[in-house]
Specification:
By secondary structure, the protein is an all-alpha fold. 73% of the residues lie in helices and 1% in strands. The longest helix has 30 residues.
Length: 537
Amino acid sequence: MSDKTPSATLAPGTTSSVPESSSTAPVSWASVWRVYAERATLRMLLLGFSAGLPLLLVFGTLSFWLREAGIDRTTIGFLSWIGLAYGFKWVWAPLVDRLPIPVLTRLLGRRRSWLLLAQLTIIGALCGMALNDPKLSLQPMVWCALAVAFASATQDIALDAFRIESADAKRQAALAAAYQTGYRIAMIWAGAGVLWIAARAEVPNAAAYQPGAWQTAYLVMAVSMLPGIITVLFSAEPAERARAESDAETAATRARFAATGIPLYGAVLFATLALLVLLLPAAPGVVVRAYDLALGAYLLPLLAYVLAVIGLARTGIRVALPARLVPAAVWFDHAFYVPFAEFLKRYGKQAIVILALIAIYRISDVVMGIMANPFYVDMGYTKDEVAAVTKIYGVIMTLAGAFIGGAMAMRLGVMRVLMLGAVLSAASNLLFAWLGTRGHDVSALIFVISADNLSSGIASAAFIAYLSSLTNVNYSATQYALFSSMMLLLPKFLAGYSGKYVDAFGYSHFFTATALLGLPVLVLVALASRLQAPKSQ
């Protein structure tokens, strides 16, 4: 959609995918910067920190720990599939959107109760990771890491909805920038901070690998979740929106299901979801043994299943339901199906381009990220060196990137900054390939980490604002979870093979290949910027 395309008239509660309109006067730079001082923006800074803390602790930083513990790169690559929890959070997002938590929801409200529950679970699971040594037994560590990932993804679902519902569309770029700043600072604390703490906790002249040092670091990370909990407790719950239209739709669906039954493909999807929940206890073992299976062992059955569901949907076959099950079917339909159908109806065929862009926009960064810390270890950089460079230069450039990206998105338009971010993200990966030719060069490390954090800050601030603009606030948690899940699903799946690629071709080829993955992103951003505004409802 073009930055100059006039916004269409949207249904109440629907945000436009074109947040900037040519029919309104340009936002002054003074107004842009004043938004950053508002209470909602400052609150999002702290909540962004809470959201960003767990990611590296089950992704990048964990890979550093595992590599020191003697775990091979191929296994580390496959263990990054723990992060696929973020790619499937749309599955349980409708529960977060609609299901109340006993006692907590009555005391705190729908959004804050889910936030608090997720944060407490993260703290407990991080403590579990701290008390396990992957060198002695890998599976308990995977269990705890999965718990962190699922709880963190749940926190993201509730927090994204909280952010979208806390301000109008014009302020989403500022909230996204503040959120991203807090998020990136937390990632630096969970990356450089963990390495610095672990280095300080090591016993001098002892063994090279000291699990007690990592235990101390991860316990500190668990305590670092407290600012997010305090912010949730002292924040106001976003106002509930009128549900009259939703109630009428629910009544109509109940009558239709009672009279004609439910689609057969819907029954299959529900049965699949129930089966996945039952099989969840086997997940850690599957992740640990994943490297024994070929790529086709995952993709071919999944493709066959998708084609079968599509075939059932095209038949239009419906199955009758007992009367007592109709209310549950109606709830499932409105929780899982309606939010996705509403997005497709609003954007029509344009949704294909939008979803394709979302699916690969961060592919360069995510696929490269899992091998960054093993790269530092293999290049001879110490924990202190990586921590010091990231702590100082990473923080500065992260702050600069997030605030510059948010300000540019409000002033110049989201799509222009999306294109800039896509170019910078791919280019920064080429810098890592160059770094691999420098040997142990701390000055070069400073330059590369600074450039990488600046580009990531700019790209992420604009991308979050773009995703927020696509949602209907009546389904904010579910729709945003779908978008952010798609953003991570393919990149994290490919990242699982990063260790195999590095073992086969080396780091230089790997970083160059991840930069080339960003080229299709440029094409999709260009196409998306030319789309028309969504149709009114």
